[in-house]
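The following block was generated as part of the benchmark described in Methods. Ligand: zinc ion.
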Amino acid sequence: MALRDEVTALLRDLLRLDTVNPPGNETQAAELLRAYLEEAGVACELHARVPERANLVARLPGRGEGPSLLLLSHTDTVVADPAEWTVDPWSGELRDGCVWGRGALDMKGHVAAAAVAIATLAREGFEPAGDLVFAATADEEVGQDYGLSWLCREHPEAVRTDYCVNEGGGDWVLVGGRPVYLCSTAEKMSAPFRLRVHGRSGHASMPGIADNALVRAARLVDRLAGFSSPPRLTPETEAFFAALGDVPEPAVLERSVAELSPDVRAMVEPMLGTAVSPTMIAASQRVNVIPGLCEVVCDCRLLPGDTPADVEPALRARLGEDGYDLEWVEAVGGTRSPLGTPLWDAVESFVAAEEPAARVVPVVSPGFTDSHFLREAFGTVAYGFFPMRTMDPELAARLVHSADERIAVEDLELGTRFLLHVARTIGAGA
Ligand SMILES: [Zn+2]
């Protein structure tokens, strides 16, 4: 069967399984993949913290002469409201050159491509230098420790690998007229914080006798909305600019960024500093009581390598000194992998052969991915890359977690060929 037909059929089967998380029920997907992979001669294991939420790990054993590679994906999806969709979100319908359904882009398309890649290699009798591992994990979307975080801790030998290809990149974009594929090599740290804004409560019929904490908080929220840390280059953004021509001097970085086209600027800006978004607020529970306390929670994303303590002074300077307490809620993620590795070379050689005019540039993902757990636990070099060039990247970005999610069959095939290329290249033991 042609690669394209095989990956399309497998994706359609995966999309017909409802693995909306919560509750997940990813075991259905793990069983489907196990049946498919075992038929191709790939050994599979299911690892589950609870029976209905299994992770599948499959392996082509290596000769012990080279680095191991993990093709990582997750089988859970976010919810879908059928009323908003043109087709049934769990139909796996094939229409207009696309496969439709919840998870087609995030990320059952990638799951199917990786499964077809390892199955194809198994049927060819491929013996990689180091283990080739396929993991389709549970619970990426919610992250309550049923998926990769749990595997890294409870079954580290199943997923300990030198290199990993995951989601989070592969978009094709035009930057200054030049086609570019984005490869995610790092991610920002998610470090939300809470402001407790103090006032004095009182009866709402006489505002003058109280000091309204909600009104005070509104001023602070307004200041945070205008917060931006001074832009700073990291290894990723330096390589990004270098690949496109030249690296701006730090002194003129802000101006250089301002001169980029709006779509490129929107992509680059989050990679240059801290981002803050006030997202939650709670004050009085009664309409007639002026609140003496107001709590504001802000989403906050730091550059990899930065800590909350590093950025707190700038936040406090922006907020002013009194009337509130600032408390960090948590700090997760924020890891990076080096550039210029054999995995990077494999991504580049694929793109060079596919589209000689295009370049690969590293990006820092603004959001969290499972790559973090591998980098943290084993120092794995993990990149997010699944090339897509048929579907417009803006449309794809809009469809993820939204209605009418679908993937172009052309992109599905391109992604499968990419994963095959990486597995063969790393598996050659260079
Ligand atoms: Zn995802």
